[in-house]
């Protein structure tokens, strides 16, 4: 099974490709937000990896804050009904906000977050997403800074999980979720450092 999974899994974005793309996005943000001291807002947990690397690569003053949310029903896929479990610590009123997401799929989560955060009257709000699964979109959302246009595949790594595992993969893998369900440890070889 492990062998089959190894053959079945495919590196979609390498560690180098991610680093390079994050660098480009950080440069764009640094240019666009120079002197604007933005607050980078992320949603736990998956976006934390991207947010940390993105922020490290910026060259301007900025702040960060987190929200924790949960979708009702506990389904694998977002149902668009979102409950805030942990709110922001910072007051975003009058400040420039960049909502940082690891992946935008249906757009339901992002659309809810944008309307919630907009009601707090930030000076501006834009979206930076590492992966844009645009073919899955149900609600249109404007993504100002986009890392990759992601194919409609199940992806893990760099913050993205399968049953809370594999967030610590340094690359992003495309996998068969069914096979991973049968053998949840099948991707362990990918965790080993070269
Ligand atoms: C992911 C991602 C977004 C949401 C996108 O989070 O971080 O918040 O799904 O899906 P949507 O566009 O269909 O609404 P997830 O629910 O996997 O939680 P996690 O970050 O804790 O893994």
Summarize the structure.
By secondary structure, the protein is an alpha/beta fold. 29% of the residues lie in helices and 28% in strands.
Any idea of the CATH class of the domain at 18-150? Alpha Beta
Structural class: alpha/beta
DSSP strand count: 9
Q: What does the radius of gyration come to?
A: 17 Å
In the predicted model, the low-confidence regions spanning at least 5 consecutive residues are none
Mean pLDDT: 92
Write down the overall geometry: globular
Outline the secondary-structure elements.
Blueprint: H1 2-8, E1 10-13, H2 15-32, E2 39-44, H3 47-57, E3 63-71, E4 82-86, E5 96-104, H4 108-118, E6 124-132, E7 145-149, E8 154-156, E9 172-175, H5 177-182, H6 188-191
Parallel strand pairs: 2-3, 2-5, 5-6, 6-7
Antiparallel strand pairs: 1-9, 3-4, 8-9
Helix pairs in contact: 2-3
Bound molecules: 1-O-pyrophosphono-5-O-phosphono-alpha-D-ribofuranose.
Structure explained in plain terms:
With 194 residues, this protein is an alpha/beta fold. It has a domain at 18-150: Rossmann fold (3-Layer(aba) Sandwich), CATH 3.40.50. It has helices spanning 2-8, 15-32, 47-57, 108-118, 177-182, 188-191; strands at residues 10-13, 39-44, 63-71, 82-86, 96-104, 124-132, 145-149, 154-156, 172-175. Strand 5, helix 4 and strand 6 form a beta-alpha-beta unit. The chain is globular and about 50 Å long.
